Amino acid sequence: MADERILIAKVGLDGHDRGIKVVARILRDAGFEVIYTGLFQTPQTVAAAAVDEDVDAVGLSMLSGAHMTLAPLVVDELLARGSNVPVIVGGIVPDRDMDRLKAAGVAAVLTPGATSDQIVAEVRAVLDAASATA
Amino acid sequence: MVTKRELWQQAYEASKLRDVDHQTMSGVPLDAVYGPDDGEFPGQYPYTRGPYASMYRSKLWTMRMFAGFGTAEDTNWRFKEIIKSGGNGLSTAFDMPTLLGLDSDDPMSIGEVGRCGVAVDTLADMEDLYSGIDLGGITTSMTINSPAAPIFAMFVAQAEKAGVHRSKLGGTLQNDILKEYQAQKEFVFPPRQSMRLVRDTISFTAAEMPRWHSISISGYHIREAGSTAAEELAFTLANGFAYVELAMQAGLPVDSFAPRLSFFFNAHIDFFEEIAKYRAARRIWARWLKERYGATDERSMQLRFHTQTAGVSLTAQQPEINIVRTAIEALAGVLGGTQSLHTNSMDEALALPTEKSARIALRTQQVIAHETNVAHIADPLGGSYFVEALTDEMERQAEELFAYLDELGDGSMLEGAIKGIEENWFQGRIADSAYEQERLLNAGRRIVVGVNAFTEGNGEEQMELLEITNEDENRQRKRLEQVRHDRDQSAVDAALARVRADAADPEVNLMPALIDAVKVYATLGEMMKAMESEFGRHVEVPVI
Fold first, then answer.
1. Per DSSP, what are the bridge partners of residue A35?
2. How far is the C-alpha of B110 from the C-alpha of B346, rounded, in Å?
3. Which residue of A has its CA nearest to B541?
4. Least Cα separation, residue A133 to chain B (angstroms)
5. Is the pLDDT of residue B226 over 90?
6. Distance between alpha carbon B47 and the CA centroid of its chain, in Å?
7. CA distances in angstroms from B167 to B171, B342, B425, B510, listed in the order given
8. What burial letters (b/e) apply to B217-226, b meaning 16+ CB within 10 Å?
9. Cβ atoms < 10 Å from Cβ of B149
10. pLDDT tens digit string along B452-502?
11. Which residues pair with A33 in a beta bridge?
12. B507 within some domain
């Protein structure tokens, strides 16, 4: 458990980083190793970092409404690099987009108001599911 | 011996007043201000109780609703709806690519065009945005920072094409780059190069646009990013001092530009703390401008501010409750003496607002203004033991933070602000405060209705949300392609070469070169790249 590594990333132009920084600390306090990419990443740079760092999951924080465009691109870029590491999206995602994101290969979606405990539990569940199918 | 009340009375009687009845619902007549004859009065230094003697009896706050989505045509239509509904100030929200100085056809812009605001690539978009709106008669605010100078150049050029001379334009450019590095994070150039552009816009407006506010020094985003109320107050005013020193270093006398500086604060849900924050802000600003910077014009000492209710206080759960939160926050702004106000819409934790939810938000202000009778009295909470003590405490905490920055900058608040950014001091403090709020929420020590308590009914209501489609992005790209096709490319190349040459010389003001480039339809991205080739790019080293 102590070795589980999570890459968290801001993709695209969205500068809102309050949420991702809080989530970083929540996950770190829960015992995960957390790597934060910083702002203004592309799907390519995120996928490359995920592979280089050999992470167990990728978390994307998206508050600008661009999730339907960018999240599937991250999944595709990971697959193109032979990685099926699970991708979790957190941020402002309307209900109508939930199923569309899952269909595009996103493992889980966390929306505003998720508590620290819920975030940790969801990440845990995603990691367990991924290791069961690996 | 003339009392402070008598001095106030003279100023009050000299003010032009609105034609309304100043009495309670039951007919009790109301004074314009209450307090002892030798206490503090509004319109008197240090302005704790308000910048003007008559406050809302002369002019209600401006109901300035922030809007922007899709293409310039879409937003122009929404602007006209706002004016029709009784809004009397416009505030423009730009999309993420525009905020970062990128064109809509830049590869980085994919998925973001027109989503969080309106896309503006060239003068042609700016013309559509304000088409049919009398810019000499209404004031306009533009929330733009890293590319403030070229966007402002577009605004000036389109107004003059529509026949309004620049000297007649009234409004506000946000243009507060320091808080971008600290909180909002839409930065492009490194801090020192960005500050040169701020200097150029201050000098340009001081010389040519007497009705224009060159900067709106913004605590809003600092608070949204997680700071406490005292940190919002202190960081914002410290940034204000930095801009004052910047302009004075450029040779401008303090009273030539300080009256055109304005502020922008958050109205969060902690009602009394917010009111105390606004009161402390006015008092601190007045004292620093007079004592530290030697201002003698009282308008330089009078802090005037815009308020927006706290986006971060809105919940995705049971979104109608957000109407109540926004009303309470808006009331705090009004009791705190704000000069203009934006009220958020109930659906903004989920998406950009629909027309209906934006109208309810505006109506909330109209209820406060016209039904509650709170606007008859200046600083109605002044003299409350509690509010006065909290005002003093806000001021004390802010002064502690100023002392740190003053020392960091070796006696320069400008240097202190820049070093504080470079050393991640602001960013670290804001992240710490944000995490503390989250910890309290998770531990149940802070209650948010519908989130960690009273959750019955969550998920029952399906709101109708505004959806921005890729269709808007495609339309905007086609429009840009057309503009590029129709323009005189050699004129554009020459204008951009001049922008680059002027950027290379820190003694030159960049505004004239930018205005010339805008007029031949250079794109925002082209002008930013021309400047970037001289200025370089800022990369944040993230701290978590």
1. A7
2. 28
3. A38
4. 32
5. yes
6. 21
7. 11, 26, 40, 19
8. bbbbbbbbbb
9. 27
10. 999 998 987 778 888 878 888 999 999 999 999 999 999 999 999 999 999
11. A5
12. no
Our CA dihedral for B225, B231, B233, B236, rounded to 10 degrees, sits at: -60
Judge whether B294 lies within some domain: yes
**Which tokens is B408 given?**
């960091």
**DSSP collapsed to 3 states, B222-254:** HHHCCCCHHHHHHHHHHHHHHHHHHHHHCCCCH
Q: Using an 8 Å Cβ cutoff, are B448 and B315 in contact?
A: yes
Q: How far does the CA of residue B146 sit from the closest CA of chain A (Å)? A: 13
- Asked if B542 lies within 8 A of A12 by C-beta distance, the reply is no
Domain that holds residue A119: 5-133
CA atoms of B538 and B16, how far apart (whole Å): 49
pLDDT of residue B111: 86
Per residue in B70-109, pLDDT (tens digit) is 999 999 999 999 899 888 888 999 999 999 999 999 999 9
Is residue A85 within 8 A of residue A57, CB to CB? The reply is yes
- What residue type is assigned to position B290 of the chain? K
How far is C-alpha B364 from the chain's CA centre? 20
Q: Omega of the bond prior to B253 within 30 degrees of 0, cis?
A: no
The domain tally of chain B equals 1
CA distance B149 to B537: 16
Task: For the beta carbon of residue B385, count every other beta carbon within 10 angstroms.
Answer: 7
Full DSSP string of B456-472 = TTTTT---------HHH
- Domain of B426, CATH number, reads 3.20.20.240
Q: State how many domains chain A has.
A: 1
pLDDT tens-digit profile of B169-190?
A: 999 999 999 999 999 999 999 9
Q: Does B99 touch chain A (CB under 8 A)?
A: yes
State the average pLDDT over residues B196-205: 96
Which residue blocks in chain A are alpha helix, DSSP H? 18-29, 43-52, 67-80, 95-103, 116-133
Share of chain B above pLDDT 90, in %: 90
**Beta sheet of A5-9, edge-to-edge order:** A33-36, A5-9, A57-62, A87-91, A108-110
Domain extent at residue B209: 60-442
> Can you tell me whether residue A115 is helix, strand or coil?
coil
Distance CA B103, CA B144 (A): 15
Burial of B462 (0-12, 13-18, 19+ CB in 10 A): exposed
pLDDT one-digit tens code per residue, A81-126: 999 999 999 999 988 899 999 999 999 999 988 889 999 999 999 9
A92/B112 touch (CB, cutoff 8 Å), yes or no: no
What average pLDDT does chain B have?
96
Q: Where does the pLDDT of residue A2 fall: very low under 50, low under 70, confident under 90, or very high at 90 and above?
A: low
Amino acid identity, position B192: R
Q: What angle do CA B6, B10, B11 make, to 5 degrees?
A: 120
Q: What is the CATH number of the domain that holds A16?
A: 3.40.50.280
Residues B127, B161 contacting (CB under 8 angstroms) = yes
Instruction: Say which of B99, B112, B434 has its CB closest to residue A66.
Output: B112
Closest Cα of chain B to A46: distance in Å? 14
